[in-house]
Design a protein that fits this description.
With 704 residues, the chain is α+β, with helices and mostly antiparallel strands. Helices cover 38% and strands 27% of the residues. The strands form 5 sheets. Strands 23-22-1-25-24 form a 5-stranded antiparallel sheet. A 5-stranded antiparallel sheet has the order 3-2-6-5-4, sandwiched between helices.
């Protein structure tokens, strides 16, 4: 809003308004961040692992987010289940006939398939550009966020925390990377983002805004956290278990090697078992050399299954005792043996209580049911997931909570479980409120004390399904993005001529040369660079490679038709395991129109500033709250020595408490400003107050 005090010059104001309108249109056009689409398209700002791009120059192979650690986790889960069953068998002094085989689970590779969204803000942090990928991440259309700040879509406390960090970067005009923050999805749930940004500086070094990208790291962060928590919990349970545990691995040459133990094993056996790790089973426990156990253990490693021994006598030079044990496969080629001293059954009773506690507090829902599908045990996680109390669930059956298992199909399912003993499948659970959500069921058929049961664990798959859906959408968006980027992606050796190993089709409209021209080396990229810029490009890239940093360049080229263009380039080096540079990868965009537009805008702004400063009337620019700018005549009118004395103050600060009509100045000013904000210009008399307290009258013209 522009405030004129003193003589109102209609013609001058109309001309100035037209200039403001023209400038805003040019700024809006200039704020299309064609160069920033580089990072979203080729992953240069996203932190893509270089080896994930090294295999195929035309194909993006996502880095495996889950690998051997997950297999180890599943093996530990198997081990925990075996511990529970073994303690139960010790408690009831009955040999368990359960066959507890749990197949290994593999998660779908969770990758960041370039689901980043790109943005640009002004110096206040207000979005001036948002790429379409924001819809896949937060559900907003780009236009929904234009004119807002990142803090407008954050929880209040998060907004305050991030704002403090952002203001520090703004103050120092610094870039920032890996800034984790929480934003609201359009449907209200929270999304964890990772933000990277770089400052936009004009030629004088003044900050005009930021450009950057946001990445959804919710799934990755959650899986990593859950993985660590599960590993820590299971490791703690294993190490604190009163049962002895020995782990073995079958080597390719047939040797069965002792690989691990726990503290309870050493206490039960009365020896230091750790020095025995790395030895074969016959070397570590020579008393087994002539028995059938080593061969049985090898069979378990190879084929799975389990083996139970009761009151087994073992003797060698250091160990003498009777033991009860269970041996089972934890993963192909690996196994574990759980054992206890038969003489310590009272200690085993305490172990049962501890194991029951662990079962009650498992993070996954656990159910025990009989042949009629009635529940006779549920843990706390099951109650929380379904929003029933334990007492309520124990009066219910499977059909009451699983719409995929009506009473009519249960008998056939029971027969199938009796045959297969174990199963893993997807189903659905229904809460007290009627909400149905997907679950993965791991079920085991168990016979104990001549009674048959099913023990089942249910894992909520809602987040996984959402992640899979987001991955598919991300892959679709990436494909569309790569096909529509206004520029070209490339890969080339770090050589002076920049010979291209790969360059996308965007090079043709940019240079006049096709990708085949570059890949077949009919023309090299350095041939196009203006001679004065060639050394600058080389030196900046070499400096970035030496520092293992990404680089960003602006330079000129001569196109095939002889025209000259300005290009913006961003890239980075890809290194091998020894730190040697393998090649460069990056993205190049045409900056010609933007640079020309910026030059025209600067010229226009200079003319506007001259008119603004030289005007005879006092002129203010303000928002709904305070003055943002004014000319020298305005400062003089209010008795201020400098313009800064007026800025960030409101019209009420320079008004008496009441106007001549008896109304409060603050109330009347708000009414007038609201009318102007609604598109209704106002002209009115006003009593003003100078800095020294002197009152004076002036006519005010207020318009948008």
């Amino acid at each position: 809003m522009c405030l004129c005090v003193g003589k109102f010059c209609k013609d001058g104001i109309d001309a100035m308004t037209e200039r403001f309108r023209t400038n805003r249109q040019r700024k809006k056009k200039d704020q299309q961040p064609t160069g920033l689409l580089v990072a979203g398209g080729f992953g240069l700002l996203t932190g893509i692992n270089s080896t994930a791009m090294a295999g195929n120059r035309n194909h993006f192979t996502p880095p495996a987010a889950i690998g051997p650690e997950l297999l180890g986790l599943v093996g530990i889960v198997c081990l925990l289940i075996a511990i529970i069953l073994f303690v139960l068998t010790v408690y009831y002094r009955r040999k368990s006939h359960a066959a507890l085989r749990i197949s290994e689970q593999r998660y779908r590779n969770l990758v960041e398939a370039n689901s980043d969204w790109i943005w640009e803000t002004d110096h206040r942090g207000v979005y001036t550009y948002v790429s379409p990928q924001v819809k896949a991440i937060l559900g907003y259309e780009p236009d929904d966020l234009i004119g807002k700040t990142p803090f407008d879509i954050m929880p209040p406390e998060e907004a305050e925390r991030v704002r403090c960090q952002f203001e520090k970067y703004v103050e120092q005009k610094e870039s920032f990377q890996h800034l984790k923050n929480i934003a609201y999805h359009i449907d209200g749930h929270e999304i964890l983002l990772e933000t990277n940004g770089i400052p936009i500086l004009d030629k004088k070094g003044n900050l005009s805004g930021y450009r950057g990208i946001d990445r959804n790291i919710e799934v990755r962060h959650r899986i990593e956290r859950q993985l660590k928590e599960s590993q820590a919990k299971l490791s703690s349970i294993i190490q604190s278990s009163p049962m002895g545990i020995l782990t073995y691995e079958l080597m390719p040459d047939g040797r069965l090697v002792l690989t691990g133990t726990n503290q309870a094993a050493e206490e039960i056996l009365g020896i230091d078992v750790l020095p025995l790790t790395g030895l074969t089973i016959e070397e570590a426990f020579p008393g087994l050399a002539e028995s059938e156990l080593p061969q049985r253990y090898r069979s378990i490693c190879q084929e799975g299954g389990n083996f139970h021994g009761n009151n087994y006598e073992y003797q060698d030079a250091h160990i003498d005792g009777f033991y009860e044990f269970d041996a089972f496969q934890t993963s192909p080629g690996k196994m574990a043996v759980l054992f206890s001293d038969v003489a310590e059954r009272m200690e085993t009773q305490r172990s049962l209580e501890l194991t029951q506690f662990a079962m009650d507090h498992l993070s996954e829902a656990a159910f025990w049911m009989d042949s009629e599908a009635n529940f006779f045990y549920v843990n706390k996680a099951a109650c929380a997931a379904l929003n029933y109390s334990k007492e309520e669930l124990l009066t219910m059956s499977v059909p009451d909570i699983d719409p995929d298992f009506p009473a009519s199909v249960w008998p056939e399912h029971w027969k199938q479980m009796r045959l297969e003993k174990t199963a893993r499948f997807e189903s659905h659970h229904r809460t007290r409120q009627g909400r149905v959500f997907p679950v993965e069921i791991t079920a085991n058929f168990i016979t104990y004390d001549d009674t048959e049961y099913i023990c089942a664990f249910a894992r909520d798959m809602t987040e996984q399904k959402q992640a899979e859906s987001a991955l598919l959408e991300s892959q679709r968006s990436t494909s569309i993005l790569l096909g529509n980027l206004p520029g070209t992606a490339y890969r080339c050796p770090n050589e002076p001529d920049w010979p291209m190993d790969f360059i996308s089709e965007g090079c043709l409209p940019m240079t006049g040369y096709s990708s085949e021209d570059f890949i077949n080396h009919r023309v090299e990229w350095n041939d196009l660079i203006v001679p004065e810029d060639q050394s600058i490009v080389w030196e900046k890239i070499q400096q970035a490679v030496a520092n293992r940093e990404s680089y960003q360049l602006q330079y000129r080229i001569h196109c095939r038709d002889g025209s000259e263009k300005w290009l913006w380039e961003r890239g980075c080096g890809v290194f091998d395991d020894k730190g040697n540079i393998r090649f460069l990868e990056g993205f190049i965009a045409d900056e010609t129109e933007r640079i020309h537009a910026i030059e025209a805008l600067r010229e226009s702004e200079a003319k506007h500033r001259l008119l603004f400063t030289a005007a005879n009337d006092a002129i203010f620019i303000m928002d709904e709250l305070c003055f943002l700018d004014c000319n020298p005549q305005a400062a003089s009118l209010y008795g201020c020595n400098t313009i800064d004395e007026l800025l960030q103050k409101s019209p009420v600060d320079f008004s008496p408490e009441y106007q001549e009509d008896g109304r409060l100045s603050a109330e009347k000013a708000k009414e007038v400003i609201d009318l102007v904000a609604g598109g209704k210009p106002q002209r009115f008399p006003w009593v003003h107050c100078k800095l020294n307290g002197e009152l004076f009258y002036a006519e005010v013209s207020l318009n948008r």
